[in-house]
Amino acid sequence: MKRKILQLFLLVPILLLGSLSTNAQIKPDYIGNWKFEAPTAPEGFTYGIIALKKDSVIMEFTDGANKFPSNWVKVKSDSIIYESDINGTIVLFSLKINDKLKITGNAVWSEGVTLMNLTKKED
To answer: Taking the complete model, does pTM exceed 0.85, yes or no?
Structure first.
């Protein structure tokens, strides 16, 4: 009996980890480059491109000097939540998918919150 309980305790975490990794995949319809606008963000961080990949997000601001990958990504039905380290500042992004061409959301960091608007970039 103890052996079966031990097996159960070992199996449950493995199943949970497997299901969590499935949630971190962005649907193919939304994968690609998105132009973003964050008008209330600090100067230099108001425009750029966000590349949504299958299981990661990469940001590049207008100057194109640096690319900032996500530390982690969580995907829930119509939302993408991720965290990035932008020049030493941890920023939490919460994006809501409106349709195949528009995403809205916000970025939260130690200095406050800014609204974000994303539009699908034509390739």
So the answer is: no
